[in-house]
Amino acid sequence: SSSSSSNGVIGGLSSTAPVSLSVSTEDVNFASPAVSLRTSTKGQLQPVDLNGPAVPLLKHRGLANSVDTHVATGTISDPDLDEIIRCVSICLSQMMKQNASTDTSPRKETVTDVENQDTTTTIATVKKKDGQTVLERFADIFSEERAMEEKAKQDNGQNRLTVIGRRRPLPPESISIYNYVRNIVVTVRMETECNAICIAYIERLVLKTGFSLTADNWKRITLTALLLASKVWDDDSYENGDFAYAFPLFSLAEINEMERSFLQLLDYDLSIKASDYAKYYFLLRTFSQKDSESFLLKPLDITRAKHLQKKCQQTEYRLRNIYGEPLAKTL
């Protein structure tokens, strides 16, 4: 699998045009598959309101279950974890502010029609039966507004909900982003390295497909990226069912669908090389108020980098077996 482009979308850097994925024009199966769940041994979870105030930070978080078990032992104090989460929230905020002037759907202005060659076209221009492009359909999966509309349909018992004058949401306040990320990271006891991997996956999604991180989709995209980051880094991560229990804002079916969609859009490319990790480590460190010596997150050594690559391959294989073929082979 190939890693993301060196060109970035964060910190004022210009994003590259999305990579054209060559696909056939057959229909897509958007049904959520049944996922086999495994409960982590980290401990019992308590449901948390993701849109509520920040949960208390843990006194200490051991590293015993992480990918670097054989290298590092120790604890993480409250201020250390808080600083890393703050850096992640700043990074997400910058990505959204950079895209605030764009549409909440994938960036159509960066997607151009191409001439069909044989029976293939690009992911951005493949039309579904309802007239949507495939990318627009995936955008709906991560849209908070779309989810609220669907819930309103069910609550009102209507077959259709008429929406007039849909307004583009404004980027959320920094404290809201911070609380949301902290509630996820602390509740499911994620290792600190998952934060850097999460940002790597989000930027890879943007560069590969043309998605923009917006006020409408950042919550679902961030949750999914953190879920995947935990699975590739943590040797004993919580699974989808645990996330659905801990974060009742999302059903298990929604989490399965978001994970499957994210994976298909990435073509199951979960690879994180040492250079990839270093890029996002340094990015987060630039937002830190601490000096490099006291910033908890550290670059990977050779042993941990090799182990991470192995875990990425194992996770790709496992999730591919759960969800099926990459998008390019199922369209």
Describe the structure.
By secondary structure, the chain is mostly helical. It contains eleven helices and two strands, in the order βαβαααααααααα. Strands 1-2 form a two-stranded antiparallel sheet. Helix 1 packs across helix 9, helix 5 crosses helix 6 and helix 5 packs across helix 9. The chain is globular and about 55 Å long. The two termini are 20 Å apart.
Query: Rg to the nearest angstrom?
Result: 19 Å
Number of helices: 11
Helical percentage? 40-55%
How far apart are the termini? 20 Å
Feature tags:
331 residues; mainly alpha; two-stranded antiparallel ribbon; 2 strands; 45% helix; disordered N terminus
Task: Show the helix and strand layout.
Blueprint: E1 22-24, H1 78-98, E2 120-122, H2 134-141, H3 144-156, H4 174-187, H5 193-209, H6 218-233, H7 240-246, H8 252-265, H9 274-286, H10 302-323, H11 327-330
Antiparallel strand pairs: 1-2
Helix pairs in contact: 1-4, 1-9, 4-6, 5-6, 5-9, 6-8
Task: Summarize, please.
With 331 residues, the chain is mainly alpha-helical. The protein has helices at residues 78-98, 134-141, 144-156, 174-187, 193-209, 218-233, 240-246, 252-265, 274-286, 302-323, 327-330, and strands at residues 22-24, 120-122.
